[in-house]
């Protein structure tokens, strides 16, 4: 039986700046995924990235309510998912899936999804997909090598974490979701992941060698979160 792998693909990898699309990364990512598509079935949920935060920041200036900000984020993530999927052509499912509450039954080896409804980040969608499809691990691809004790962009004394349990991780990121919030892995998603005993592997997506090492069972640069 082919093993299923859920990838929560950070939107910052796809849209690092609001007017920049990381097409070279997407091409390299596609090459890696297809290399392992005989061994694995990949379920890839794509985040909103900087374009999402740009739209939400502009809307916030006009006091747009939280629910509408969420809908903006959902649309941005779905657009990113469709964009990345387009690079895979016939190798991927024709359309992105919308509901994380339905089992994925198609025979394509690469399937894409994005956001779903207000209050659900793409990280949370990833956890629900894992719960519904009985998958016990999520590969979280971000733009940093590790999860850190503090935001490394703001605090020079932040330290990389190689292994941590969910309880201690949640102490770092808190428990509240906000539209466009930036965390290594979303607080609400983390609470559910802890509840269902999910294992999370967080790797810098730009370091595709580390991703390949994970896929081949070798030592990799990144952070593991589990019970």
What features would you describe in this structure?
The structure is a single chain. By secondary structure, the protein is of the alpha/beta class. The relative contact order is 0.16. The protein has one domain: Acetylglutamate kinase-like (Carbamate kinase). Strands 3-2-1-4-8-9-7 form a 7-stranded mixed sheet, with helices on both faces. A two-stranded antiparallel sheet has the order 5-6. The chain has 8 helices and 9 strands.
Summarize the helices and strands and which ones pair or pack.
Layout: E1 3-9, H1 11-14, H2 23-35, E2 40-46, H3 49-60, H4 66-86, E3 110-113, H5 122-132, E4 137-142, E5 147-148, E6 160-161, E7 163-165, H6 166-173, H7 187-196, E8 199-204, H8 208-215, E9 223-226
Parallel strand pairs: 1-2, 1-4, 2-3, 4-8, 7-9
Antiparallel strand pairs: 5-6, 8-9
Helix pairs in contact: 3-4, 5-7, 6-7
Key words describing this protein structure:
Carbamate kinase; 227 residues; alpha/beta; 8 helices; 38% helix; 7-stranded mixed sheet; two-stranded antiparallel ribbon
Unreliable stretches, pLDDT < 50, 5 or more residues?
Answer: none
Individual helix count: 8
* Number of strand segments: 9
Query: What is the 3D form?
Result: globular
Order of helices and strands: EHHEHHEHEEEEHHEHE
Instruction: Report the β-strand fraction as a percent range.
Output: 15-25%
């Amino acid at each position: 039986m082919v093993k299923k792998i859920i990838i929560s693909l950070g939107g910052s990898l796809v849209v690092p700046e609001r007017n920049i699309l990381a097409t070279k990364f997407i091409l390299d990512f596609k090459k890696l995924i297809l290399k392992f598509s005989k061994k694995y079935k990949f379920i890839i949920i794509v985040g909103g990235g900087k374009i999402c935060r740009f739209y939400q920041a502009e809307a916030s200036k006009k006091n747009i309510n939280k629910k509408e900000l969420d809908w903006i984020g959902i649309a941005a993530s779905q657009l990113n998912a469709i964009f990345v999927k387009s690079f895979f052509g016939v190798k991927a499912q024709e359309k992105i899936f919308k509901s994380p509450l339905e089992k994925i039954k198609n025979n394509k080896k690469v399937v894409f999804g994005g956001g779903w409804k207000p209050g659900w980040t793409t990280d949370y969608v990833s956890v629900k997909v894992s719960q519904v499809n009985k998958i016990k691990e999520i590969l979280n691809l971000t733009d940093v090598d590790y999860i850190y004790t503090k935001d490394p962009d703001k605090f020079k004394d932040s330290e990389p974490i190689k292994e941590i349990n969910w309880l201690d991780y949640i102490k770092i990121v808190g428990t509240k979701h906000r539209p466009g919030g930036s965390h290594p892995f979303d607080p609400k998603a983390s609470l559910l992941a802890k509840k269902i005993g999910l294992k999370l592997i967080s790797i810098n997506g730009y370091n595709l060698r580390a991703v390949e090492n994970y896929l081949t069972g070798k030592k990799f640069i990144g952070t593991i979160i589990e019970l």
